[in-house]
Design brief:
The chain is an alpha/beta fold. It is built from 17 helices and 18 strands. Strand 17 and strand 18 form a beta hairpin. The longest helix is centred in the middle third of the chain and has 58 residues.
């Protein structure tokens, strides 16, 4: 649609459809404007491959893309002239930037490093008179505050060289020499004087070795010949004393390979296996702050109104690998230090497994303790049961004694009566005019036999009602049966019970508790007597040996018999 027709449609349309059409057209224009990317120029001081500014620029780029609500067109330019004091290369570079951005100036310029800031402040009227600027990656002393305009914002840091040297002396108390590695570019020569001034109070404690005027090869030679109790402070090395640029991190790696002393630095970007650590500037935190300021400016805020205080050293960080290499004790580190690259402990690696095993072991220990307690309780219960059973057995015997008292009296009375009778007979044989010695002797032998019989009866009765013992002795079963029948003689007569004995004469002697066996036979006989109260005729038959199947098994030196 031509412009004239479009205007006519907007002005002349009075219908609802025309109004809606106009609104849609305006929204489409706004969307088109919003979709246009923001142009960001990142101006590097030394080049895109100089550490730590290369990593710093990458971090700023990542943060810009993460925080920006708009699409970004980020371009990089490098101020090569910063490597030397020759200003002639700046003229064509100025013309190049003017021609490149004349029609489409950047929406914002991010100057990384002090040389970039100085360059922009000196030539901004020729190149970017009104473009908003963010000066970052530089120390506050490198900013010409008088040259700042309303279009400028600064994100600076504050170096503290005295704190860096103090950290070296705290971590390595025996340090006597500090080799300072610093380049020879104009910016680095400025910092050489600043470092000398700030560390002057330490000259009475350590000797400083300055290397700015040396070539990199000479620096490596000095580092490889350092005496004991030395340290190396790495500031920057963009251009060595021979005028050779040192890009990337290859210079630091080479120095680390030959150095006879630990290396310290101001930037945590160098904490990659070559430096020990300490209080340093955080590259990531500075990049986040710079990106945040740039986004605020792109969002419409005036750069001059954004005031950011210089950032100081972050929390001290140390490399565990370098600490181990140089024997640095953890107790010498500043309070609150963070130790990186420490190998994970067994707890860190196997925490779930250790917790599981510990829990299982604890449960198992509880189970074992419970089982031991149960075992002890069972033993106590068994001991109590045995004692109770023994008491009950004794009580049973005492009760049986009451029932058998008549039989016992009869059994004792018989031999006593025989003793008296035989003794009287012996006296009569002896009182004759001619004593009959033979018959008297015969009577006295019967007295002795009756006395033994009475003694056996009393012994058996005492054993029957004595407390139980576990002693096992050779025992004659037939003798036990006859002894028990003698004890229950009166009960048998009282209930008119006849006895029928069929005892095998070839039964072997067995080992057992005579009292317990006698009690068993007695209980069986008493049960039989009680069970025949209503039976006629009443005959108690006791049989062993004859007609039984015997199986003997040899065990050790004796026999076990099962009938």
């Amino acid at each position: 649609m031509r412009r004239r027709d479009f205007v006519r449609a907007i002005v002349g349309s009075s219908t609802k459809a025309g109004i809606i059409f106009c609104l849609l057209a305006l929204c489409a224009c706004q969307v088109a404007l919003a979709a246009e990317p923001k142009r960001v120029l990142m101006l590097h001081s030394f080049g895109r491959d100089f550490k730590p500014w290369n990593d710093y620029a990458s971090a700023i780029r990542s943060e810009l893309e993460r925080q920006s609500p708009w699409p970004l067109d980020i371009q990089d330019q490098s101020l090569v002239s910063a490597r030397s004091s020759n200003e002639d290369p700046e003229v064509p570079f100025i013309e190049y930037l003017s021609a490149l951005y004349r029609k489409n100036p950047p929406d914002i310029i991010v100057g990384i490093g002090a040389p970039a800031a100085v360059f922009i402040q000196q030539h901004r009227q020729q190149i970017f008179p009104k473009a908003p600027m963010v000066f970052t990656g530089l120390e506050q002393r490198r900013i010409d505050v008088s040259a700042l305009t309303e279009h400028d914002s600064v994100v600076a840091v504050k170096h503290d060289f005295a704190a860096a040297i103090e950290n070296i002396l705290q971590v390595l108390p025996n340090t006597k020499n500090v080799m300072v590695v610093n380049g020879y570019s104009p910016n680095e020569r400025f910092w050489l004087e600043e470092i000398r001034r700030e560390v002057k109070p330490f000259e009475s404690r350590v000797a400083f070795i300055w290397t700015s005027h040396l070539s990199f090869e000479e620096i490596l030679k000095h580092a490889s010949e350092l005496p004991p109790h030395s340290a190396i402070f790495w500031h920057t090395l963009y251009v060595d004393g021979a005028g050779v640029g040192q890009e990337g991190d290859s210079a630091l790696k080479k120095l680390h390979a030959v150095a006879k002393a630990p290396i310290f630095s101001l930037f945590d970007d160098f904490l990659t296996g070559e430096t020990v650590g300490g209080p340093m500037h955080s590259i990531l935190e500075a990049a986040q702050e710079t990106a945040a300021v740039a986004i605020r400016i792109l969002n419409g805020e005036k750069p001059g109104d954004i005031k950011v205080p210089p950032t100081r050293f972050a929390t001290p960080k140390f490399d565990w690998r370098e600490m181990q290499r140089w024997g640095i004790s953890e107790k010498n580190l500043p309070p609150g230090s963070e130790i990186l690259f420490r190998p994970p402990t067994a707890w860190d690696q196997y925490k779930p497994h250790i917790l599981a095993i510990t829990s299982a072991t604890f449960v198992q220990a509880l189970l074992i303790a419970w089982l031991l307690n149960e075992r002890q309780y069972r033993r106590r219960a068994e001991r109590t049961a045995r004692e109770t059973f023994s008491e009950l057995t004794q009580m049973n015997r005492m009760a049986t004694a009451g029932e058998l008292s008549a039989a016992i009296a009869h059994e004792v009375k018989q031999p006593i009566t025989g003793i008296v009778t035989m003794a009287n007979a012996a006296l009569r044989w002896l009182s004759r005019e001619t004593p009959d010695i033979g018959r008297a002797r015969e009577a006295m032998n019967k007295v002795v036999a009756a006395g033994h019989q009475a003694s056996d009866v009393i012994t058996n009765v005492r054993g029957l009602f004595a407390k139980d013992t576990q002693e096992k002795t050779p025992t004659d079963i037939n003798k036990l049966v006859k002894t028990v029948l003698g004890l229950v003689y009166m009960d048998l007569r009282k209930h008119s019970i006849e006895t029928n004995l069929n005892l095998g004469e070839q039964l072997p002697i067995i080992f057992g508790n005579e009292v317990q066996l006698q009690q068993v036979i007695l209980n069986l006989v008493m049960n039989a007597i009680e069970s025949m109260n209503s039976a006629e005729p009443r005959i108690l038959s006791i049989k062993n040996g004859n007609g039984w199947t015997e199986r003997r098994t040899c065990i050790g030196r004796g026999y076990r018999q099962r009938n």
